[in-house]
Amino acid sequence: MTKFAVVYYSATGTTEILARAVAAGIHTNVGAEAALLKIEGEDVREGRYENPELLQQLDSCHGIVFGSPTFMGSVAAQFKAFMDATSERWGRRAWTGKLAAGFTIGGSPSGDQLNTLQTLQVFASQHGMLWSGIDLPAGWDSSGRNRLGSQSGLTAVRCDSNGVHQLDRLTAMYLGERIAGLRRSILTEGDL
Ligand SMILES: Cc1cc2nc3c(=O)[nH]c(=O)nc-3n(C[C@H](O)[C@H](O)[C@H](O)COP(=O)(O)O)c2cc1C
């Protein structure tokens, strides 16, 4: 079994919808499973994130997908506290070689979501993880996925109706499918 985790923060539920879609995409790959791990604000005390059980769950995964809403042009403070809490693992290279990917949602079509994605990408690189973006060229997918055209990962924009656009949800599923498929390719083909 190949183990993934989708670790995310969500204040009003839209990032959570995307997280569930990423996990559903991972599950479409035979032999892949995904744990949904939510960063809870109550685990941040005096600015420090404390949840050793969640961090240990991440240690045993082959890949981790990171998700945060875009707040003030970057990751939410709760997610950043989680990031900082992994520094001891950075020191002992605990996550080197794991696959990584990321997603974010904002309230504006161009609300600086890219900076959030790049923050997640740099975070993964700090850990020596292997970043997977989205290989769906914007405007070329027959079902309209990756409608916002981000190749570094999923960027979404909040909708008035149900919070998350159906195409953003489908793109999140694709991101999950892709990272689990990459892991399978590495195992079966050796080289990519
Ligand atoms: C404090 C705060 C800052 C925000 N900053 C941004 C921003 O910089 N760019 C943007 O597009 N949306 C911004 N938003 C909107 C949220 O990203 C958006 O509502 C998102 O769907 C929230 O995700 P959640 O439902 O998972 O909590 C902000 C919202 C809040 C509460």
UniProtKB/TrEMBL annotation:
GO molecular function: electron transfer activity; FMN binding; NAD(P)H dehydrogenase (quinone) activity
Gene Ontology CC terms: membrane
Annotated keywords: Flavoprotein, FMN
PROSITE patterns in alphabetical order: FLAVODOXIN, FLAVODOXIN_LIKE
Superkingdom, natural source: Bacteria
Statement: the UniProt record of this protein carries the keyword Flavoprotein: yes
Domain Flavodoxin-like: 4-179
UniProt entry tagged with the keyword Iron: no
Cofactor(s) demanded: FMN
PANTHER family documented for this protein: FLAVODOXIN-RELATED PROTEIN WRBA-RELATED, FLAVOPROTEIN-LIKE PROTEIN YCP4-RELATED
Protein's UniProt name: Multimeric flavodoxin WrbA
Lineage: Bacteria, Pseudomonadati, Pseudomonadota, Gammaproteobacteria, Cellvibrionales
